[in-house]
Amino acid sequence: MKIAVLGTGEVGRRLATKLASLGHEVTMGSRTADNAEAGRWAAEHGGRHGTFANAAAAAELVVNATSGLVSLAALESAGAGNLRGKVIVDVSNGLDFSEGFPPKVVTLDGRSIAEQLQRAFPEARVVKTLNTMNNTIMVDPGRIPGHHNVFLSGDDAAAKAEVSALLRSFGWAGEQIMDLGDLSSALATEQLLPLWLRVHGAVGSAEFNYSIVTA
């Protein structure tokens, strides 16, 4: 599959590397075509790089790995026409580091980042997932022993099925993938971040995940 990964930070590079290793044709998108991180990644992994618009135009599926507070601007730069009809896998969180660490989780108009993107690009199909864990676990769930979960939110059933298949290719078992329902549920997963940060501080590591255990 032709996949655009928007965002050149650690999360974007980690996801792009995994996708390339699985045989997908990956283009890393950034604000400018001469982004050094994107160019270095492309050279090392045999991928491509370009602007957000270049990457999205050539893609069949788009991964939003930009920082949540700039995600809307990044996708606007990618262009509505280049996103039309495509699945957007949103892994972002609205983290505000302006007052230091730990960051605050920002919601605009009471909506998640994913909902904002869906509202701005109604002809795209936004699916929220992977935003409740460290990026190493996103692409290698076996790092955490036993049962643990990845959450899925979206309004389009076919889009969620496509993203679930992608998650399984990462190593997530079907019973680990928890569909929380429509895209309004994405806000709840984004608001898990304050707890995630506190647990990180308590255990001294990012190598953990949430597990939903039922009676």
Report on this model:
The protein contains ten helices and ten strands. The chain has 215 residues and is an alpha/beta fold. It has a single domain, classed as NAD(P)-binding Rossmann-like Domain (Rossmann fold), CATH 3.40.50. Strands 3-2-1-4-5-8-9-10 form an eight-stranded mixed beta sheet, with helices on both faces. It has a two-stranded antiparallel ribbon with strand order 6-7. Helix 3 packs across helix 4 and helix 4 runs parallel beside helix 6. The longest helix is centred in the C-terminal third of the chain and has 14 residues. The protein is globular.
Number of β-strand runs? 10
What's the CATH topology label? Rossmann fold
Spans of 5+ residues with little confidence (pLDDT < 50)? Answer: none
Distance between the termini: 39 Å
> What's the CATH class label?
Alpha Beta
CATH homology group: NAD(P)-binding Rossmann-like Domain
What is the mean pLDDT? 94
Overall geometric form: globular
The rounded Rg comes to 16 Å
Helical percentage: 25-40%
Q: What is the annotated CATH architecture?
A: 3-Layer(aba) Sandwich
Largest beta sheet: strand ordering:
3-2-1-4-5-8-9-10
Q: Strand share of the residues?
A: 15-25%
> How many DSSP H or I helices?
10
How do the helices and strands follow one another from N- to C-terminus? EHEHEHEHHEEEHEHEHEHH
Number of domains: 1
Query: What class would the helix/strand composition place it in?
Result: alpha/beta
For the report, how would you describe the main beta sheet? 8 strands, mixed
